[in-house]
Amino acid sequence: MTSMPVVYRLQQGARALFAFSQSVDWALAERYLSPSLMALFRQMDRGEQLHSLAVLRDVLAQGDTPNDLAVAALLHDVGKSRYPISIWQKTLVVMVRALVPSAYKHWSNGSPLNLWQRPFVVYEQHPLWSAELLRAAGASETACWLAAHHATSLATATTPAQLEWLKRLQQADDEN
């Protein structure tokens, strides 16, 4: 994720809080995910599923969408399911990252087994964890790469296609 105002992230948290009242479009996810990747999607909490479907819809609205990009849109945050955190913890991470970056950096380099550090570590490490889970479930290397880099600089792209797809994924992620 690129930087965004704290207020916007708080609004995202409020949407996640009421995710229980919204239905998940399983059919849309199943159009792009193999059974093993769909199993990963089902492991995500409802708020993350709804977010990922919104990201996919935005990516699809941008035009021609390769399946690898659709898979990454749906599963870029699946790494968060490795160590689930609550809405208040997600909000805390965003606020600390924006207001006290040195504390964020320190805590995000800790252990996910430490209850205080966990949300910071999850926020920092989930892209790599997502890529690991995708790879283990048989996703393409392109989808894995997109998931691993969805929160990093566009400069990590080494091909024009990677740059275009990463830009599209990040834009849709930031808007949702």
Q: Summed up, what is this model?
A:
The protein has 176 residues and is mainly α. The protein contains 10 helices and no strands.
Tell me what you see in this structure.
The structure is a single chain. This protein is an all-alpha fold. It has one domain. 67% of the residues lie in helices and 0% in strands. α4 runs antiparallel to α5, α4 crosses α10 and α6 packs across α7. The longest helix is centred in the last third of the chain and has 19 residues. It is globular and about 40 Å long. The model has no long low-confidence stretch (mean pLDDT 92).
Query: What radius of gyration results from the CA coordinates?
Result: 15 Å
Biggest beta sheet summary: none
Helix proportion: 55-70%
Shape: globular
Instruction: Give the mean pLDDT.
Output: 92
Distance between the termini: 11 Å
Low-confidence runs: none
Strand content: under 5%
Number of helices: 10
Quick one: how many beta strands? 0
**What structural category characterises the helix and strand content?**
mainly alpha
Domain unit count: 1
State the order of secondary-structure elements, H for helix, E for strand.
Answer: HHHHHHHHHH
